[in-house]
Amino acid sequence: xxxxxxxxxxxxxxxxxxxxxxxxxxxxxxxxxxxxxxxxxxxxxxxxxxxxxxxxxxxxxxxxxxxxxxxxxxxxxxxxxxxxxxxxxxxxxxxxxxxxxxxxxxxxxxxxxxxxxxxxxxxxxxxxxxxxxxxxxxxxxxxxxxxxxxxxxxxxxxxxxxxxxxxxxxxxxxxxxxxxxxxxxxxxxxxxxxxxxxxxxxxxxxxxxxxxxxxxxxxxxxxxxxxxxxxxxxxxxxxxxxxxxxxxxxxxxxxxxxxxxxxxxxxxxxxxxxxxxxxxxxxxxxxxxxxxxxxxxxxxxxxxxxxxxxxxxxxxxxxxxxxxxxxxxxxxxxxxxxxxxxxxx
Length: 345
Ligand code: SAH
Description:
- The chain is of the alpha/beta class.
- It has one domain (22-337): TIM Barrel.
- It is 45% helix and 12% strand.
- The protein is built from 14 helices and nine strands.
- The radius of gyration is 19 Å and the shape is globular.
- The protein starts with a helix and ends in an 8-residue tail after the last strand.
């Protein structure tokens, strides 16, 4: 197994068969070996710096029906909300004071926000905070829309591919959605010039080792600047309510593999990881992650942006989150930096 990890480090790739073997057979010793290597690689490139992104969950309206997601359009019990432009700018103002230099606007696919509205919001943030990066995470659009947001000043875009296997994609999404389109979006975003993030849920329903091997191969081919992974966690009001959550052990191992494969990639230790383990973020950093994305949304709406059950950090305000995080990161020998935290080419 260690020879495969060494080969991944050296060649930045493995065959599908090799990935599958590693995913099926890794044990604690493999995990430790991979984590040490991953951290060494991250430390060599990013030092002990951890980049922070202020996450603004600005709408939980969504036109899609993704089976895993708590805010999908079929969930009649979700209490829907939208933040006004002023509320979004207020989040940025607070975030800026707390040292955030990246704002991530995330939401469901909400038709209320036309391309012009999104472009205007991006533009107003960039005008006020020209030293900050703006990341969008608002789902699948067409090339021209992405171009419009980019021209308005958006720097980065997060769009997890969710799974690189077509049959698996079908089991997670309704007919109206397609993996082909999602992949096209990612390539469009890259072409336009965004720093692009893809990613997947660990332990999503029906996921196989072969599917995961395809995820690694897809990521290697796309060469994204960021990769977001976190455990799948069931939501009580979805058709996957009774499915099992992804595990800490698998998530940490995959973070390490991603770091070893895509050495310079920006790799968040996600909120979902912190939700399944009380020190999940710290463990994620020790496995090779170098980014955290605390919540900047107003406390009043946080519980409503509920993608899965038990989501942590929904009660504290932005300042509390920021200081709690700083302590946690320092406890494992790293520190938060006040910086845009761009990809180091
Ligand atoms: N509408 C945007 C943002 C989606 S939310 C988009 O389509 O990209 C961000 C991510 O949360 C999703 O890409 C998905 O991977 C993750 N997510 C959704 N439901 C989840 C669940 N039940 N458990 C864990 N992660 C989930």
